[in-house]
Amino acid sequence: MIRRGSSLALLLILGLPLGCSHVQKRADLVFINGAEPETLDPALITGQPEGRIVNALFEGLLRFDRQGLSRPGVASSWEISPDRVNYTFHLRPDAQWSDGRRVTAGDFVDSWRRTLDPATASAYSYQLFSVRGAEEFASSTGGKAHDFSTVGVKALDDSTLRVTLRQPTPYFLDLCAFPTLYPVRTDLIEKYGDDWVKPEHLIGNGAYLLESWHINDSVRLKKNPAYWDVTHVKLDTVDVLPISQANVAYNFYAAGQADLIMDKGLAPPSLLDALKKRSDFHAAPFLGSFFLRFNCSKPPFSDVRVRKAFGMAIDRRRITTKITRAGESPAVSFVPPGISGYSAPAGLAEDVAEARRLLSEAGYPGGKGFPLTTYLYSEGELNEGVAVELQSMWKESLGISVQLARQEWKVYLNSLGSLDYGIARSSWVGDYPDPNTFLDLFLSESGNNRTGWSNNSYDAMIHAAAAEVDPVKRFGIMCRAEEFLIRDQVPISPLFFYVGIQLYDGKRFGGIEANVLDEHPIREMYRKDEIQKP
C-alpha cells in the first residue's frame, strides 16, 4: 500500500516533475491529464490531452456538455433548410474574445479556411468535408480550384453564418462542437506565427484563459471574465499536470497534490482490484477503441496475409483480464457498442493455426526470414503491459521476435504520422455518436489514417454512406465498409474497448458525468465544499 505521506517524498527523491512547482497559490482544481500537450492549436490537435485544454480555451458554434450532448455555444440558435443542406447560425451578441472583441461570423469563415488550407497540414481537416466545396479546396494546390468562395461557408453579416453542405449530414451539429471547427484569431496567427498559442499571445473565446504553460510541468487556466456564460463557470483557476506514468500520477493523487486523474490508462493496473472497491473510483464504458495499426506502405505488412496472421495470433481476452483489468471488453469490431441503431460486424477471431498457415503462405514459415519489426507505443504502464504481452504472443504463436519502441507522446505522434514503425499501438475516441467518426479515419484522404493503406473500394463505400439519407441503408453500407476494413484488408486490428476511469472525491467535486463521448468540460466542474451546485 502507498502511504499518503511517503508518496511526495518518493517523487522528490526520484527527481520527478512536481507540477505547479512555480510559486503560486494552489488552483481550485488540479487534475492529471496524461501527456504533455503536443500543441494548443484547435486545427492541429489530435489527442484527448490537448482536446481537454483546447475545449476550455475555445468554443465553437455548439459545445458539448458533461452528458456528452451538443448544446448552443457561440451560436444561440440556428435554422435548417427542409432539404437539411443549409444551416443558418445566429451568433450571440455577447460572445467575445478574451480581449473584448466580438466573435463574428467572419472569424469562423477565416478559421475554417485556415484549417482547410493544405499549408496548415491539419490532420482533421476532413471533418469539414461535409461542407460543399471543402474537400476540393483542401486538395487543391492553386488556381481557380483554390478559390475559397466556392466553399459553402459565408458570413451574411457579423452575427449570421450560412453553411451549405454537399449532402445531408446527420451529425453536422455535433461536428460544430468539435475543436477542428472552432474559431481562432487568424490576425494573431499572422502576427506571431507558431508562437500565437503561447500565454502572452493566445486570445480565446472559451471559458478559460491560458495564464501559464510550463513545458513538462503544468498548464494553468484562469476563468475568462469575457466569456458569455461566465456566471456558470465555478472554478477560478485550474492546473493541468502532464503526467503519463500511471504510478507517478497515482502518487500525486494519493499525496494530495492532485484532485482528479482524468486520462484513460492512468490508474495503475497493479492497484485496480483495490481501487475498484473505493468510492473515489469512477468507471464507465465510452466510445473508445484500442487497436493496432500496421504500416501497409512497405513489406512485410504490405502483404494482407501477414497483417491477418498478426491479428489472428492475439488472445484479446488475455489482455483484458491480465493487463487492463478495469472491465474493458475484447474488441470484436472497430466501432464500439453504444451507437444507437448500429450493429458492428465481427472482425477476425483468434485462430493461431490459420495465422501460422497465412504466415507460411506469405513466405515466412514458422517466422523464418521475417524482417526486423518494431512495435511502436507511447509512454504509460498500460501501454507497456500490452506491448510486452503482444510481443510474447507473437513469439509463442508465430515464432517472430518483435522489438518494442516506447516513445514520449510528441515523438510517438510524429513517428506515427511519418509511418516510422512496423506495428503501432493506437486508440480512438469517438468525436460524435456515429460510426462515421471511426470509419472516416481510414479514407485515403484522411490525415488521421497513418497506415499507408489506401483503397478505392473502401473510399467508395464511405462516400456512398455519406450520401445516403435513409439511416437504415446508411448504417448498412457502413457495416459492410467496416467488415471490409477489419476482415478483408486489415490495415488495423482491434484489441479492446475502453472503460473511462476517473479518480476524484465525489463529496468534494461535481460536474463530472459518465457519457459515451468521454466529454468532461472543465467549465462545468465545481467544488461542492465551496459552492452550490449550478
Question: Would you give an account of this structure?
Answer:
This protein has 534 residues and is an alpha+beta fold. The protein has 3 domains: 1-57 and 206-280 and 504-534, Periplasmic binding protein-like II (D-Maltodextrin-Binding Protein, domain 2), CATH 3.40.190.10; 59-185, Dipeptide-binding Protein, domain 1, CATH 3.90.76; 286-499, Dipeptide-binding Protein, domain 3. The protein has 16 helices and 19 strands. The strands form 5 sheets. The protein has a 6-stranded mixed sheet with strand order 13-17-12-16-14-15. It has a 5-stranded mixed sheet with strand order 8-9-10-1-11, with helices on both faces. A 4-stranded antiparallel sheet has the order 4-5-7-6, with helices on one face. A hairpin with a 5-residue loop joins strand 4 (75-80) and strand 5. Helix 1 (4-14) packs across helix 7, helix 9 (304-312) packs antiparallel against helix 11 and helix 15 runs antiparallel to helix 16. The longest helix is centred in the C-terminal third of the chain and has 19 residues, at 471-489. The radius of gyration is 23 Å and the shape is globular. The protein starts with a helix and ends in a 7-residue tail after the last strand. The model is unreliable at 1-20 (pLDDT under 50).
